[in-house]
Write a structure and sequence with these properties.
about 70% helix, transmembrane helix, membrane, transmembrane, Gluconate:proton symporter, about 0% strand
């Protein structure tokens, strides 16, 4: 009887969290409240022989946060490198020069803009970086006459494609699986195994972006030039940086693949090369100034994200602890056929929108905690089940910060953005999940 009561309370609280997340509620607050509720539900069963008492302060709130340090370091370094690319002028220079190459052909120029955006965000991360690049690229597309309904999805889908090999995004998703004891003994970690899937996934999504542009080629060619944004927000001139620095966005990934480097030393080396190549190391004072300003801005960009991830770790411990007592019941209900589950996730991929049950940075965090609590699925399979819809959804959901900024900056109706972007990301889900089955799990 007590198990039924506990189950009802867990389902009710989970449903409330789903509704809260989908309505745009603050996830840090939501995770913290859900952690407390699920912990209380767990202790409700102890007097009746369900579960065993444990040190909540130590095991739920202390240890998960203290063991999360390495992930935070990787997130900070990735965000810092992204800010360095922006503040040294490398990102802006790449954007301007590439657009100039294709300015006589609007369709070709739009494709170039897409690939430049993807290139920059293979290492850059955060809404600050997206804004810094967007205020350059959107006016360029506006002058070319690219309709806003095309320009905005091209920008956001290209950022989303880059996220497949962005180490900052990877470690955030990997955090959801930290500590999971996979039946096959494998751990979710950055390296060649993941990148052997991540790179093809990025290429698939970029191919979809190109197809989207070509489908709208007539509208682009016949488009009327327009102004977008405040001219005062744009750089007054094209930053002068050496051409060879244009390869720096992919240097961290290349070092990980070729030399098996971890992301932190790879990012640090790329930062040093960026400062050196753009002349910011010519004087000690100038070097210290750019060093401090980029680090300060980068950490400010991700401060709230780090707090949310720490609270998420609290919830994960609570969820796995509680679900251990419900694992056998769930195993009898949830299908264990990987093909059926993968196909179902692809078909239902739009449920990731608005922080729904297939979005890890939403209600999906509770879903994955429940699945991990069952202890029957391998880690990379579970990674694909929620990361594929979450990652593709990043490209077209208005709850994603840089997407919302792009929509508002271009004064585009959110429903128009969704109408054009969602079909592209939804269709991408199927081949990318297929790649995951071949290369990841």
């Amino acid at each position: 009887m007590i198990t039924w009561i506990m189950g009802i309370l867990l389902i009710a609280s989970f449903a409330c969290f789903v509704i809260y997340a989908m309505r745009g509620g603050n996830l840090t607050i939501g995770f913290f409240i859900l952690t407390i509720v699920w912990t209380l539900v767990y202790f409700l069963g102890i007097p009746f022989g369900v579960g065993e008492p444990f040190d909540v302060i130590k095991e739920t709130f202390a240890e998960p946060a203290l063991t999360y340090g390495p992930t935070i370091v990787q997130i900070v370094c990735g965000a810092w490198f992204g800010r360095v690319l922006v503040d040294t002028g490398i990102a802006a220079s790449i954007s301007y020069r590439t657009a100039k190459v294709g300015e006589k052909n609007p369709v070709l120029a739009t494709i170039c803009v897409a690939f430049v955006t993807c290139l920059i965000f293979t290492s850059a991360y955060g809404v600050g970086s997206a804004i810094a690049i967007g205020v350059i690229l959107f006016p360029i597309m506006g002058r070319l006459g690219v309709p806003k309904r095309v320009a905005v999805p091209v920008f956001t889908l290209s950022i989303g494609a880059a996220m497949w090999i962005n180490s900052v995004m990877f470690v955030q998703f990997a955090a959801f699986y930290q500590g999971y004891e996979s039946p096959d003994g494998q751990n979710i970690e950055w390296g060649t195994h993941y990148l052997s899937f991540g790179i093809p996934a990025m290429l698939v999504q970029m191919a979809a972006v190109v197809i989207f542009i070509l489908i709208n080629a007539k509208a682009i060619e016949n488009g009327t030039p327009y102004e977008v944004g405040d001219p005062n927000e744009r750089p007054a001139s094209v930053p002068e940086v050496p051409i060879w620095t244009y390869v720096l966005p992919v240097v961290p990934v290349a070092l990980s693949i070729v030399f098996q480097w971890d992301s932190v030393p790879a990012l640090f080396l790329a930062v040093i090369i960026a400062f050196f190549g753009t002349g910011y190391m010519k004087t000690y004072k100038g070097f210290v100034s750019i060093l401090n300003s980029t680090a300060k801005t980068a950490i400010g960009d991700i401060g709230s994200l780090i707090i949310m991830l720490l609270v998420l770790r609290f919830f994960q411990h609570a969820a796995v602890t509680v679900m251990a007592d419900f694992g056998p019941a769930l195993t009898a209900v949830v299908p264990n056929n990987e093909f059926i589950l993968a196909l179902a996730v692809c078909i239902l991929a739009p449920l990731a929108l608005f922080r729904g049950p297939l979005e890890l940075y939403g209600a999906g965090s509770a879903v994955i905690s429940i699945l991990m609590g069952m202890g029957v699925f391998n880690s990379w399979f579970l990674f694909a089940m929620l990361v594929v819809p979450s990652m593709t959804c990043i490209s077209s959901c208005v709850t994603q910060s840089w997407n919302m900024w792009a929509v508002e900056y271009n004064e585009l109706e959110p429903k128009t953005f969704l109408k054009n972007g969602v079909p592209v990301y939804w269709l991408c889900t199927f081949p990318i999940m297929g790649l995951a089955s071949l290369l990841l799990f």
